[in-house]
């Protein structure tokens, strides 16, 4: 019995280890901070957006049906559809550029490139991802517009959707390429060997076996790229112009959600006015759009991960 | 088919291997292999891990080409044609010399598509349904899957998946099938099925099989090649070498080499 009591004494808690507790507290607090910040952002957006809709000049119906976005005019109109359509329009142009280019570079990198070429190209793509978007904005305005757009489509204005869309597209190529490349690399090598052993060529193997097997990851990269295009701000503000009426001409200037937020917050609009509060309604609209896309991308990517487990 | 040189060979053999060695960069995986592989027989490659038997079997359909830095020296002739001749197209080679891998690797498509893929690649698109049925029947899988040909192949059991891979291989009508440890991922029941299947297939195909299961080699093969690793004098490099190539019945009763005897009786390896 003495032995047992002796051991019990040795095992009894005597030290409190305060540093353990302090460290644990900070780590836990950091983890919850991200959640707390997200919640407060949503809360702020929501309360201010509610203020916006309480102005009798604003109606839900008008918000979604008016075809002009002119909050600072004498008779303001708040047709968010103008901004949403501009946003989607430029995003679609960006996708037309970035999806094929991004996907083809991913297929090239994972299926055709030698290890050495891969070592060169992959970092270059990542550098492209690191270029600040303001640089792309001026690139669009001062290079793409005069040297490409205005040369091939004479008469196009300085600010136009096409130029902004192309620049946004170039900006998201690395996102699409890198995630698609990861998706292709996640497909087991045994599938590639199985196809080649049947007498399939590299081309058929990459297009008929590897591409479909990686499809959900590739779709996830598309959704994420689209979501980045929608949220892109600097390029469209600099090169896309501010044309506040509904139109679908790629040569015309447009007015995206993000660039109208920039314009409102730049200062002319007094605090507390409806025009100012509109900013938050736009914020929440944009937030909902990208949120849905990100969830969609996450869902698709998760589904694809299951396939080979 | 055009080739520069045609070796006079025993009409009974499908492959003639002369002074073959395979290396990856500086590492020589296997060297000095000489053997004739007999047509419509099962030839088994046995030996301890790392003796280069998988490397060797991959040189018979030029799958080694796909590994960066892999280099094949010496010659393998296939029905008299040098497989590593500059004019030979590896894609054409693989259409005639099929391969089944260690781990079942069905495509993430339907059962039927797994077979039609190879048919389409090889322009065998006439009577596809018949060809699918024939291949699955030959692979002893038809009865189990005939009602769910449109089911995803990944839903099959491991043994069924491997038989599907065999079906997919034989559907394109090769004359030789290479099998790289085809049962190593399977349970004994599934293994037995594959072994029985091999006895059926060997009537139409020449079969080369890598196995580390000696019972399997002794049960199912007609010829047997035993490889082992030799360590270089400085002890740094290990290279696979062919120790003995013989009829299986002789190999497992009265082998020529002492080393074979030791390996087979389980005294090393």
Keywords summarizing the entry:
heterodimer, A: two-stranded antiparallel ribbon, 76% helix, B: 269 residues, alpha/beta, Rossmann fold, ten-stranded mixed beta sheet, 10 helices, 27% strand, globular, disordered N terminus
TL;DR of this structure?
Chain A is built from 13 helices and two strands, in the order αααββαααααααααα.
Topology (elements, then pairings):
The complex is a heterodimer of chains A (309) and B (269).
Chain A: H1 2-11, H2 18-54, H3 60-65, E1 69-70, E2 77-78, H4 80-112, H5 115-130, H6 133-152, H7 161-186, H8 189-197, H9 202-213, H10 215-231, H11 234-239, H12 257-265, H13 274-306
Antiparallel strand pairs in A: 1-2
Helix pairs in contact in A: 2-13, 4-7, 4-10, 5-7, 6-7, 7-10, 8-9, 10-13, 12-13
Chain B: E1 13-24, E2 27-38, E3 42-46, H1 53-58, E4 70-78, E5 81-82, H2 90-96, E6 97-100, H3 111-121, H4 128-138, H5 142-145, H6 158-171, E7 176-180, H7 188-201, E8 206-210, H8 214-220, E9 223-231, E10 238-247, H9 248-251, H10 258-264
Parallel strand pairs in B: 2-10, 3-8, 3-9, 6-7, 7-8
Antiparallel strand pairs in B: 1-2, 1-4, 4-5, 9-10
Helix pairs in contact in B: 3-6, 4-6, 6-7
CATH homology group of chain A: MetI-like
- Spatial sequence of strands, sheet with the most strands of chain A: 1-2
- How many whole angstroms does the radius of gyration of chain B measure? 19 Å
* Portion of residues within helices of chain A: over 70%
Radius of gyration of chain A: 26 Å
Instruction: Return the CATH architecture of chain A.
Output: Orthogonal Bundle
Write down the domain tally of chain A. Answer: 1
Major sheet: arrangement of strands of chain B: 5-4-1-2-10-9-3-8-7-6
State the secondary-structure class of chain B.
alpha/beta
Query: Largest chain-chain contact?
Result: A-B, 20 and 26 residues
Oligomer: heterodimer
Largest sheet of chain A: 2 strands, antiparallel
Q: How much is the average pLDDT of chain B?
A: 89
Helix coverage percent of chain B: 25-40%
Terminal CA distance of chain B: 43 Å
Shape of chain B: globular
> Helix-strand pattern of chain B, N to C?
EEEHEEHEHHHHEHEHEEHH
Q: CATH top level of chain A?
A: Mainly Alpha
């Amino acid at each position: 019995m003495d032995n047992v009591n002796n051991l019990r004494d040795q095992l009894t808690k005597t030290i409190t280890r305060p540093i353990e507790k302090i460290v644990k507290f900070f780590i836990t607090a950091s983890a919850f901070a991200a959640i707390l910040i997200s919640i407060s952002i949503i809360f702020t957006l929501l309360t201010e957006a509610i203020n916006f809709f309480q102005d009798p000049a604003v109606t839900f119906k008008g918000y979604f049906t008016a075809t002009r976005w002119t909050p600072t005019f004498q008779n303001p109109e708040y047709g968010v559809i103008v901004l949403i359509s501009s946003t989607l329009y430029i995003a679609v142009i960006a996708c037309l550029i970035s999806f094929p280019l991004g996907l083809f570079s991913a297929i090239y990198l994972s299926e055709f490139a030698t290890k050495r070429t891969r070592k060169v190209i992959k970092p270059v793509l990542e550098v492209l991802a690191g270029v600040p978007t303001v640089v792309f904005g001026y690139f669009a305005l001062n290079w793409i517009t005069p040297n490409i757009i205005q040369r091939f489509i004479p008469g196009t204005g300085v600010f136009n959707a096409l130029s902004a869309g192309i620049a946004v597209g170039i900006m998201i190529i690395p996102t699409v390429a890198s995630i698609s490349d990861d998706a292709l690399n996640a497909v087991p090598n045994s599938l590639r060997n199985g196809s080649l052993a049947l007498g399939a060529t590299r081309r058929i193997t990459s297009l008929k076996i590897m591409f479909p097997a990686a499809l959900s990851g590739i779709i996830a990269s598309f959704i994420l790229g689209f979501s980045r295009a929608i949220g892109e701000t600097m390029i469209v503000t600099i090169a896309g112009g501010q044309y506040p009426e509904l139109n679908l001409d790629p040569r015309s200037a447009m007015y995206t959600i993000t660039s109208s937020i920039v314009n409102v917050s730049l200062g002319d609009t007094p605090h507390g006015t409806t025009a100012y509060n509109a900013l938050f309604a736009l914020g929440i609209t944009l937030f909902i759009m990208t949120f849905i896309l990100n969830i969609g991308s996450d869902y698709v990517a998760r589904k694809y991960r299951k396939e080979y487990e | 088919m055009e080739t520069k040189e045609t070796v006079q060979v025993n009409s009974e053999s499908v492959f003639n291997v002369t002074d073959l060695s395979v290396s990856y960069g500086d590492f020589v995986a296997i060297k000095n292999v000489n053997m004739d592989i007999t047509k419509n027989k099962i030839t088994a490659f046995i030996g301890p891990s790392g003796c280069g038997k998988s490397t060797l079997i991959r040189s018979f359909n030029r799958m080694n080409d796909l590994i960066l830095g892999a280099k094949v020296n010496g010659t393998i002739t296939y029905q008299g044609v040098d497989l590593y001749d500059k004019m030979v197209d590896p894609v054409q080679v693989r259409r005639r010399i099929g391969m089944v891998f260690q781990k079942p690797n069905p495509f993430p498509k339907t059962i039927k598509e797994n077979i039609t893929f190879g048919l389409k690649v090889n322009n065998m698109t006439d009577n596809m349904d018949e060809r699918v049925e024939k291949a699955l029947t030959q692979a002893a899988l038809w009865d189990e899957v005939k009602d769910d040909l449109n089911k995803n192949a990944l839903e099959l059991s491991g043994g069924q998946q491997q038989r599907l891979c065999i079906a997919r291989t034989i559907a394109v009508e090769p004359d030789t099938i290479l099998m790289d440890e085809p049962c190593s991922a399977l349970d004994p029941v599934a293994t037995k099925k594959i072994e029985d299947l091999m006895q059926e297939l060997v009537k139409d195909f020449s079969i080369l099989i890598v196995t580390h299961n000696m019972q399997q080699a002794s049960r199912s093969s007609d010829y047997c090649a035993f490889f082992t690793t030799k360590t270089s004098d400085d002890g740094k490099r290990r290279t696979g070498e062919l120790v003995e190539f013989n009829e299986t019945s002789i190999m497992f009763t009265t082998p020529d080499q002492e080393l074979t005897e030791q390996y087979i009786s389980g005294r090393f390896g």
